[in-house]
Amino acid sequence: MRFDILTLFPEMFLSPFDASLLKKAIEGGLIEIGIHNIRDYAPGKHRVVDDAPFGGGGGMILKVEPVERALQAILPDREDALVLLLSPQGEQFRQDTAEELSRHDHLVLICGHYEGVDERIPHYLADREISIGDYVLSGGELAAMVVVDVISRLVEGFTGNRDSVLFDSHTTGLLEGPHYTRPRKYGEWKVPEVLLSGHKKNIENWRRREALRRTLDRRPDLLESATLSDDDKKILAALKNELSE
Ligand code: ADE
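# adenine complex -> structure
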C-alpha cells in the first residue's frame, strides 16, 4: 500500500513514521510513504503558497496552483490513486471509513493549512474530504498521520497478531473489554479468576460481557448500530438492571 502526503511541513512526519510498527512496515516494504513539500511546486522565486481571501476577511488561503502542480508530478495520469483532503469540514473518519479506504492500493493525502484552502482544491482535485473529529487542528498534518496509522494497521501482515485487529474496539462495533497480563496478583489488585481458568468458552463469554458492559457504560450510542445476538441482548438487559439497582 502506498501513501503520498502533500504538506507544507514535511519535517513534521519524520519521527512519527520512524518508530514502532509503522517503521517496521515501511522497512519491510508493506507500506510505502512519500512526503512532498507543496512549496516545491509553487511557481516564482518566492514560492508563494498562500494568499488573502477574495471578498476580504482574515487569514491566508492555500492556493490551488501549487497543489495541482504537486499532484501532476506525483500522479501524471491520476492512475488509480484516491486523493483525500484533510480538513475539519470533511466527512468524519471512522473505523469503517478506514476499512473502505484500505481497499485502495494508493492514497494521496493533501494537508490543508492556514485558515483554509481554495475551494477548487476539494472541488476539482480531491476525491474525498476527511475530518478526524469535531475540533480544529492547526493543519491537516496530524490528521494525515492518524489516517495513515489507522489504515496501515488494516494491511495484512502489519500486526503480527491478526486477532488483535479483528477484535479491536470499533471493528466489532463495540468497545473492547479489559485486558490483563502478569503478575496474577499485584499487591491487593487481582486478575479476574476466569482469565486464569484456561476454560476457553467461559473466557470468551466473559470477554463479550465485559465488552458489552464497557460499551453500555461509555458509548451507549454504539449499541444502536452494533450487531447483537439474542444472548447479547439478554446480557445487556441484565447489565441495565444491575445499573438501575
Ligand atoms: N485540519 C484541521 N482540523 C482538522 C480535522 N479535525 N480533521 C482533519 N483535518 C483537519
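# post-check
The beta strands are 2-7, 32-37, 50-51, 61-62, 82-92, 106-111, 116-117, 128-131, 185-186, 189-190.
The pocket of adenine is lined by residues 86-88, 112, 131-133, 135-137, 139-140, 143 (CB under 6 Å).
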